[in-house]
Every structure is written in structure tokens, then in C-alpha cells.
């Protein structure tokens, strides 16, 4: 099983927290689509086209800035070159781009899952994040989505914002739950150094939220979602049963995926495991001057990655999988560390290593400790 990720780099404006590659010169969209179609066609009869593609993900940037006719060109090229299984085809969109006709066009193109970047309904938080949409547009887009033929969609929320109160968070969550979303991605605000927000923190103009406050926000989200039957299956991802994101779940389990577009990542493991990243440069991509070098990954690197990704999920990692697939045996120091964390109620260890709800709160620290102790 494999997936395809397509990076659409265009945005109306820069969100304060975002460190994904994007450009605001949207006049290049038509040229970009032409080049992307050429890029897709270059994989015809290659080893990447021999494996059935089960998932496609349009990310960004803002994929909803493309016209339906442009998306149709891309979809046609994908179907011409790859064996598409249509298990899940997702397109990220912003609320201010959404209309009923737009959603109907996407559905007719075979897009089966919408990913809506709401982040918050609070006007002051949307302004702080420098989002392009308003609270009213966020509500309207969810109404349109609920009334559409999309029975699979996800909504993004961000918590742990500087100055965000518990009351604001509860209002955000309760408003969202009114629309019965089958899937929610709830992210704790991350302050990246090269973003607008990162620069403000560096200059001392904004203080990042304290860890205790973020942990409290995490608990509130888990409680409110769970009360509606929406359960956490990864640190930042929640769904009703059967609506988990297939594309992202495959990432975490080392399934192959091909990344297209500037800044996109690829991972492919057949006789050897390789990873590469397209250069974050739209102009070079348009001129076909981006030829990334492939990194060959060792089994030890792959095993450590599997631990890093798998322990963030509710399923955890099978101990036998580490030895069978990665030739990786847990050391005495690692086993002792896991035993201590189990006594603290942060980890469960049996056939699988699984972080508890308390362990998930400090997942990054536990995973780093565990990998370092090998």
C-alpha cells in the first residue's frame, strides 16, 4: 500500500505559527499546475508507479486556492500514471474558500475527505494566528460541509495559545461538536523559530504558555471529545470509530509514500529504505531544477523512527515488530526504563509498548529517553 502527498504551496497570507513552505504570489498557480502534471507524468512506468496507491493527500499551503478545473487536471494525470485505489483522497481547505458549489465540484472529482483549517472560532485568537478567515466564515463552512455529500471530514483546532483561557477553549470545542465532526486534529501551539510568532517570542513580545496550562487544555479536549464518542488515536488526532485518517496512519507505520511539489517529503522502502525532500523553492520547481538527494536509512534509524511515530499512537508498537522488521532488540537499559515508567503509570508494556493518557502528555520526552538508551 502506498500514498501520494501533493504540496500546494500557495497562501493568501502567512499564519503566525506556520513553518510549512508557502508563497503568497498566487499568480503562479496555473504555471504550477502545468509543472505538477509534468512531474506526475515523469513517474510513468517507474518503480513508484508499480505499487497500488491507496491514499492521496493534497496539503499546503492552501490547496483550496486551486480552481476545480486545475484540480481536475491533477487528478486526471494521477489516474493516468498510477494505479489509484481510492481508499482515501483528502484535500485541505480554508473556510474562506468554501462554497456549496466548490464542495460539490470536489466530490465529483473523487475527493472523498475534506480537511478544514478552522483553528478557532474566537475572533481575537484568529487575529493572533493571522488567519485569513473570520469566525462567521468558520461556522458557515462547517454548515456547508455538514449539508454536503462529504461523510468523511476533519477539522483542525489549535490550543495552548498565549492568553487563551479555559473558557475560550471550551467554547471552541463545544461549537465544533455541534457539527458532529467524524475526525478532529487538535494541535498544541508549537513555536517555530523562523515564523512570525517565533520572532515575537524571541524579541520578548509574547510569552509562550506554561506547560501546566497546555496540559490542562489537553485534558479538557480529551474529556469533551470523549464525551461525544470521539477518541484519541494519536497525540493530536481524534475520531469516531472507523474514521481514523488512513493516509497519516500509513506514515506512522512506514508505508511508502511519494511527495510531489516544492517542500514535499517522500519515503520509499523496497530493497532499501530511502527518504528525500524536494527543495522549498517554487521557482526552481517550476524550472525543473529541483533534484533532491536521497538519504538511505539504516534499520536502526528506521526502528528509532518507528518508535518515535508509533508511541504517539494509541496502538503503540509491537515489541516483536521491532525485532522482526527492523532487527532491533530493546536493551537492558531500555527495558529497565520502561519498567520504571510503567510503575509511574505512564507506559503499559506487554506484547506492545503503549503510552497511557498520562504518558502521552510527555510523549516526546519519553520517546527521546527510550531511543537514547539503546
Task: Explain how this protein is built.
Probably acts as a heme chaperone, transferring heme to an unknown acceptor. Binds one molecule of heme per monomer, possibly covalently. Binds 1 [4Fe-4S] cluster. The cluster is coordinated with 3 cysteines and an exchangeable S-adenosyl-L-methionine. This protein has helices at 29-41, 68-81, 100-108, 123-129, 135-147, 166-177, 196-202, 211-227, 246-252, 282-286, 299-310, 319-326, 332-343, 357-361, 363-372; strands spanning 2-8, 53-60, 84-93, 113-119, 153-159, 183-188, 231-234, 237-239, 256-260, 265-269, 273-277, 295-297, 317-318, 347-349, 352-355. It has 374 residues and is of the alpha/beta class. The protein has 2 domains: 2-249, Aldolase class I (TIM Barrel); 299-374, Arc Repressor Mutant, subunit A (Orthogonal Bundle), CATH 1.10.10.920. Helix 1 (29-41) links the parallel strand 1 (2-8) and strand 2. Helix 1 (29-41) packs parallel to helix 2 (68-81) and helix 6 (166-177) packs parallel to helix 8. The model has no long low-confidence stretch (mean pLDDT 95).
Short description:
With 374 residues, this protein is of the alpha/beta class. The chain folds into 2 domains: 248 residues, TIM Barrel, CATH 3.20.20.70; 76 residues, Arc Repressor Mutant, subunit A (Orthogonal Bundle). It contains 15 helices and 15 strands.
Amino acid at each position: 500500500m502506498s500514498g501520494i502527498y501533493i504540496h500546494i504551496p500557495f497562501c493568501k497570507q502567512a499564519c503566525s505559527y506556520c513553518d510549512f513552505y508557502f508563497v503568497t504570489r498566487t499568480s503562479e498557480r496555473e504555471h504550477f499546475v502545468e509543472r505538477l502534471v509534468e512531474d506526475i507524468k515523469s513517474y510513468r512506468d517507474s518503480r513508484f508507479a508499480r505499487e497500488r496507491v491507496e491514499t492521496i493527500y493534497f496539503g499546503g499551503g492552501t490547496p483550496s486556492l486551486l480552481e476545480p478545473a486545475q484540480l481536475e487536471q491533477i487528478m486526471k494525470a494521477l489516474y493516468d500514471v498510477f494505479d489509484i485505489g481510492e481508499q482515501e483522497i483528502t484535500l485541505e481547505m480554508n473556510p474562506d474558500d468554501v462554497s456549496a458549489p466548490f464542495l460539490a465540484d470536489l466530490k465529483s472529482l473523487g475527493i472523498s475527505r475534506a480537511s478544514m483549517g478552522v483553528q478557532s472560532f474566537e475572533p481575537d485568537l484568529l487575529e493572533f494566528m493571522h488567519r485569513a478567515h473570520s469566525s462567521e466564515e468558520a461556522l458557515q463552512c462547517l454548515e456547508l460541509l455538514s449539508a454536503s455529500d462529504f461523510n468523511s471530514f476533519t477539522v483542525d483546532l489549535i490550543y495552548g495559545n498565549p492568553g487563551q483561557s479555559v473558557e475560550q477553549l471550551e467554547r471552541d470545542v463545544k461549537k465544533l461538536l455541534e457539527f458532529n465532526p467524524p475526525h478532529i486534529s487538535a494541535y498544541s501551539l508549537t513555536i517555530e523559530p523562523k515564523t512570525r510568532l517565533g520572532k515575537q517570542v524571541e524579541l520578548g513580545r509574547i510569552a509562550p504558555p506554561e506547560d501546566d496550562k497546555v496540559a490542562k487544555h489537553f485534558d479538557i479536549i480529551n474529556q469533551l471529545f470523549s464525551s461525544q464518542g470521539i477518541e484519541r488515536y494519536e497525540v493530536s488526532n481524534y475520531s469516531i470509530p472507523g474514521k481514523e485518517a488512513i493516509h497519516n496512519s500509513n506514515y506512522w507505520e512506514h508505508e511508502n509514500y511519494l511527495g510531489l511539489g516544492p517542500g514535499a517529503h517522500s519515503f520509499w522502502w523496497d530493497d532499501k529504505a530511502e527518504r528525500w525532500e524536494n527543495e522549498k523553492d517554487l521557482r526552481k520547481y517550476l524550472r525543473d531544477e529541483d533534484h533532491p538527494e536521497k538519504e538511505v536509512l539504516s534499520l536502526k534509524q528506521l526502528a528509532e523512527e518507528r518508535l518515535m511515530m508509533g508511541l504517539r499512537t494509541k496502538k503503540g508498537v509491537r515489541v516483536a515488530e521491532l525485532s522482526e522488521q527492523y532487527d532491533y532488540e530493546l536493551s537492558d537499559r531500555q527495558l529497565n526504563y520502561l519498567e520504571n515508567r510503567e510503575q509511574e503509570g505512564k507506559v503499559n508494556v506487554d506484547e506492545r509498548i503503549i503510552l497511557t493518557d498520562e504518558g502521552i502528555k510527555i510523549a516526546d520526552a519519553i520517546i527521546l529517553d527510550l531511543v537514547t538508551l539503546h
